[in-house]
Amino acid sequence: MAGVVRYHATTKKQTREKHIDESLVVRWTLISIAVLFITIMIILPLTVVMTEALKKGASVYFAAIAHEDAMSALRLTLITAFIAVPLNTVFGVLVAWAISKFKFRRKQLLLTLIDLPFAVSPVIAGLVFVLMFGAQSYLGPWLSEHDIKIIFAVPGIIIATLFITVPFVAREIIPLMQQQGITEEEAAVSLGAKGFQVFWRVTLPNIKWGLLYGIILCNARAMGEFGAVSVVSGHIRGRTNTLPLHVEILYNEYQFSAAFAIASLLMVLAIITLIVKAIVEWREEVQNIHL
């Protein structure tokens, strides 16, 4: 009997050790694949960008960044993000509130429309706005008569960016609001809180990290958008070129060092966005631990 018990104990131990060995192999295999993929797809391209940007020396690098057209492109990129992100933040919060706190017909249709920019090619979106506001559109003569420029001007770039970045904030906080439910809001209303007080003191604290995360993603897409903006901008130097469009123009003109220098500027903006994102995620994790 004792021998049988020892045999089963030994078998269980061997099975456990085998499972541990297999889990270690799987773990390190997956980690190696992830590291290799990140190295090839992210680290190497970023290294190439910085290497090519500094290939002709720091003086050429900083001259490309300080060029008047580059500064104009940077200014337009920041202005576009500064306008598009707050508007989409307000819209995202309002539509998330409506979807998660109220019952109404065609709610699924509204969710589908919010996701539409994910499904539509940015180039097609830009073309749609050209057909809506261009010189040959129904609105074209009226816009021309009142000297209102949308296509091949800053308003067109902002509108295209707004469309492309619509889903990010809304889609980030809708699940949070749905998970939160309406119990806390109803309790606050029963205690005499008004609409804005309910949102500020009850809803917002529960969604603040998700809201910040959505804003960061929205901002990153707004600064890096190319397709839709390329169609509606007209590529006018110093006026309607954002940073991605300016990189394309420089590259097509064989000014490779300048193109990579501007690309590195975009890379720096992306890294700053990632750092902010990491801080938000860390703060959220710390708060969840304390809760």
Question: What are the SSEs and their pairings?
Answer:
Elements: H1 2-53, H2 58-66, H3 68-101, H4 107-119, H5 122-133, H6 140-145, H7 154-164, H8 166-180, H9 183-190, H10 195-224, H11 227-233, H12 243-252, H13 256-290
Question: What does this molecule look like?
Answer:
With 291 residues, the chain is mainly alpha-helical. It has a domain at 69-241: Orthogonal Bundle (MetI-like fold), CATH 1.10.3720. It contains 13 helices and no strands. The longest helix is centred in the first third of the chain and has 52 residues, at 2-53. The protein is globular and about 65 Å long.
Distance between the termini: 51 Å
- What composes the largest sheet? none
Shape: globular
Low-confidence parts, pLDDT < 50 over ≥5 residues? Answer: none
Mean pLDDT: 84
Summarize the structure.
With 291 residues, the protein is mainly α.
List keywords for this structure.
single chain; 291 residues; MetI-like fold; 13 helices; 83% helix; 0% strand
